[in-house]
Every structure is written in structure tokens, then in C-alpha cells.
Design brief:
The chain is mostly helical. The chain contains four helices and no strands.
């Protein structure tokens, strides 16, 4: 495991976490990963750090966070409703 740090004056950690769970980011990781086992792929820290991420201004990151948080909350509510029906 590694600790990656970002300049908090330029990057919101929650926004970065949304980026890192995106399909595009996961696909990039998958392409860069090495190893023979599907469940035990590896990526070096330098390779991980070399991945370029488009960095919108902080106000845009905040807006993206707000929208995605709303979607997450709506999904949580829908999942809870479905769970209560079972």
C-alpha cells in the first residue's frame, strides 16, 4: 500500500476518490497492471503516479462532488427501499 498525497489547494480528496473509482480510471489501471493472475494484478507506484488526470478548478470539483453525492444518496435510498421489500 502507498500513501498518495495531493495539494489540497488544487484537489478535493472526495473528487479524486470519485475519479479513482470511475470506469475510465479502472480501465487505465487494468491496462498498466502486470501479473499472470486475474485476481492478483500489480501496478508499481511510479506507474500509478504517471496516470494523468484532468484537473478542473476547485469550484467545478465541488459541483461534481455535490452532484455525485446526491446520486449516491438517491441510490442508497433506493437500495434501502428494495431491501425493506424483501
Amino acid at each position: 500500500l502507498w500513501l498518495l498525497t495531493a495539494d489540497t489547494k488544487q484537489v478535493l480528496s472526495k473528487w479524486l476518490s470519485y475519479v479513482m473509482v470511475s470506469q475510465r480510471f479502472k480501465a487505465t489501471l487494468s491496462q498498466m497492471a502486470t501479473g499472470t493472475s486475474g485476481s492478483m494484478k500489480n501496478i508499481s507506484k511510479p506507474k500509478l503516479q504517471s496516470i494523468e488526470i484532468a484537473l478542473p478548478p476547485l469550484p467545478e470539483q465541488k459541483a461534481i462532488n455535490a452532484i455525485l453525492a446526491d446520486v449516491d444518496n438517491q441510490l442508497d435510498c433506493e437500495i434501502a427501499k428494495l431491501a425493506s421489500l424483501q
